Amino acid sequence: MENSTTNDVRGVTNAPNTVADDVMEVAKKMHWVTSSIFGTIFVIVGIVGNILSVLIWSRKSMRTSTGVYLIAQALSDMGLLFFFFITDSLTMLVPSVKTSYAFGVFFSYIGYPIFFLFVVYSIWMTVGVTVDRYIQVCWFTKAKEMCSNKRAVVGIGIIAFLCFLINTPHFKTYYPIPASDREPDDAAFDLTEFGMTEGSKRYEFWVHCMFLVLVPWLTIFILNMLIISRVVRANRGMSKRKSIQGQEKAKKAENQMTRLLLTVTFVFLILIALQCVTQCFFMMQPEIADMRIVNEAFSVAKLGIVINSSINFFLYCLSARKFRKELFKVLGLRRGDREESFSSSTASTTLSTAKFKMSFKA
């Protein structure tokens, strides 16, 4: 068998064999399916859901510091989904677009770096929301001062600035290739000298991967555990002063809070973990691994980031009654008003019936 080699996007070469080639074909098919089919579906659903989220969190009754952070997160998620479609899904659906010099310029200087910028924005906005919630629950005496809308905007600005600084090397990773300097079927972009250096690989592993996944997840997990602990202690302290009905209501609220926080934390972990593991494996480049397959697996794993940016709207709908009520108003269904009208009408009818009975007895 000839020792031919195949280059992946990072310039790594590996001698193919029959088994590896078969696995490679499966990995390519998975990449095509996840990017062109599932990726496109999640992008459409996610953008619509995030638009609705922005409209709802922008309403007067929802204007809190938490709402401000969630608006910023929804905008970040929309940017992430849009650039994922342009840089990944579109190249799977229309492969010839990669040979366009205009696309090469876009991918090198805008598409690739901005996609990862929105990835970092989205994840660290989740950290911002968690910190805001932690202050309101655990430092409630200082919450009014520290959790104002103005401070939330400042916090978002600081997060955005720091994320941009962290992501700066991605703007120097690729460069466009004119048609005269490549074959007609070759991609119109390639790695720069910096993109092929060990420094770039160390940045991806130690700075981007760790800063992107490990630190945010640990922060969110620890703060959520502290919030849950605080809620449990508060409910236990109030149980002696509540009726049995009140205790049951508090217990249900406590369980709902616990489920919600743990769901948000572990959904984030599961959806991001695969991307992190494959990226770390990709950066270490072990000798036993076929890097062509690892590269395709890394591309598939990015779908976890896309799903994470697409499902927040549905999590809000499932866990927040007030959010659902505002959603019905935005959609023109005004279910909340009908419920209130029905309750008022029922109360009025009950009162009238009681008065009639008293008059009849008299």
UniProtKB/TrEMBL annotation:
Domain (G-protein coupled receptors family 1 profile) spans: 49-316
Which residues fall in a coiled-coil region? none
From the record, give the transmembrane residue ranges: 32-56, 68-86, 106-131, 152-171, 205-232, 260-285, 297-318
Cellular component per GO, a single term = membrane
Extract the GO molecular function terms from the UniProt entry.
G protein-coupled receptor activity
Organism's domain of life?
A: Eukaryota
Looking up InterPro entries in the UniProt record yields: GPCR-Ligand_Int, GPCR_Rhodpsn, GPCR_Rhodpsn_7TM
UniProtKB keywords: Membrane, Transmembrane, Transmembrane helix
The UniProt entry, under Pfam families, shows: 7tm_1
- List localization entries: Membrane
Task: State the SUPFAM superfamilies in the record.
Answer: Family A G protein-coupled receptor-like (SSF81321)
Q: Does the keyword Transmembrane helix apply?
A: yes
Q: What is its main location?
A: membrane
Keyword Protein biosynthesis tagged: no
Q: What is this protein called?
A: G-protein coupled receptors family 1 profile domain-containing protein
Species of provenance? Magallana gigas (Pacific oyster)
